[in-house]
Amino acid sequence: MLSQTLATFVVNTHFDDLPEEAIKRAKSSILDCLGVMLAGSTQEVGRLIIRFAKSFVGDPRSSVISGGFRTSPAQAALVNGTIGHALDYDDDSDTTIAHPTVTILPAVLALGEDHSSGRDVLETYIVGVEVAARIGSVLLPHHYDKGWHATSTLGAIGSTAASAKMLRLDVTQTKNAFGIAASEASGLRSNFGTMVKPLHAGSAASKGVTAALLAQSGFTANQDIFEGPQGFIRLFGGKNDARLKRVAEGLGKSFDIVCPGINIKKYPCCYQTHSAIDALLHLVKKNGLTPENIQTIRCGVHEVTPKTLIHPDPVTGLEAKFSLPYCLAVALATGYVRMEDFQDDRVLRPDVRKHMEKVEMYVHPKLRGHAMTSAAVVSIETQEGKRFSHRVDKPSGSGRFPLSWEALVSKFTDCASLVLDAGDSDSVVKAISTLDSLSSIKPLMQTLSMGSLKKTGD
Questions:
Q1: How crowded is the C-beta side of 20, counted as CA atoms within 13 Å?
Q2: What CATH architecture does domain 271-392 belong to?
Q3: pTM metric for this prediction
Q4: Are 38 and 420 in contact, with CB atoms under 8 Å apart?
Q5: Would you state the CATH architecture of domain 2-263?
């Protein structure tokens, strides 16, 4: 049975079983997520969720990143997951159409801060990513098409797997934890472009922690929650017995974090915009085009993309992250897409808005049903009637074309500079690069939590 198989995988998988490439990629995703957590803490949603948690401190066992205080593991996971998704700059998975690290890493850190080594963190994080991917492989795309936000639903499952591993639950307890989390999993895509979307990530991380702690205390649940006739998979994804039988194939031998890999974002906006941004910038550079010289930009996309990029005329920074016209207009006007482009007071600037009218999004016939859901074909027509076109299946930073460690450090440093001084930032980079040799993550968590005080004066 699938629940038994996945629970056994969680319990019996250890650091020495993991391929070197999985560990390398895990370090990249962890560094990236810590950076966007730090930056996300400076956003309004970040300030609100930190203030909320500070008013209900509870059992002070786990650090709030950039908060300067500790709270209960579930509360810390809630805050750290939410701030990690506040900018929509965190990593993304093609397998789950979700953001895996921001739901799993906060749970790992919250439960592991006082007693865990770097190897423990890597082990539990990779296990959580794999379980979420295995379940996601049978749910998608129907699950997403129905309007569920997979970061929230699958994130709760991945977070639970990692939390169960960190707490060293046995197989029965892990199945109980899955059963608890499956009933708690939720999250609607209709909240994209609002503060609730980042809250989905924090909620998923927190639910995983809570489910595992309840199971550890003796709380019981359905032992076959994934595959049962009214279980998680059939309710959230529809009946698909053929694919269900393949979910566990190669489990423990092949890892989703390696292939197809996790996509690390180069731009701080919805991942469904990234291929189009890369394609547009490629055409502009290759053909020496200027913004005023371009008359129209037609962007052919996968059929899932219009269901995600739901704000053609955004008025807030959060909405703009899910607006293809805005993201392409920024790229065209400035030559890149940066964090500051999604501040509320910059979304309505005329020098960008005038280019939004040039952008048309449509479902490209050759991308319909395509495995690369993030693919895009950008076609430009100039004022003189010249036409140029370029297709990008996987943008830079994707699992297929991962960013270099140097590029990751540059992104982390940029994000962390909003909160940490250069010395603290460098110490975090060094800690993650040597994570498998750290005997304790507690000093790292202290830096991530307390380093902010040097700038805020709190």
A1: 0
A2: 2-Layer Sandwich (3.30)
A3: 0.92
A4: yes
A5: Orthogonal Bundle (1.10)
